[in-house]
Amino acid sequence: MKNGLLTRRENEVANLAKQGFADLEIAMYLEISPHTAKNHLKQIYKKLEVNTRAKLVALLNQQLD
pTM value? Predict the structure, then answer.
């Protein structure tokens, strides 16, 4: 699955986004800067070929089905 393309940190960020965390909340939870959190999300979108958080969440939820 495409999720295998993600780094460990990107997986953490993606899972937090799936849980509804905002960018700033992800940054605070992972103790990284908001800029770094946004960069991780940009890379995740690129690797998984999505362009919105809603599409990311839908894709991640499909993996469970």
Answer: 0.88
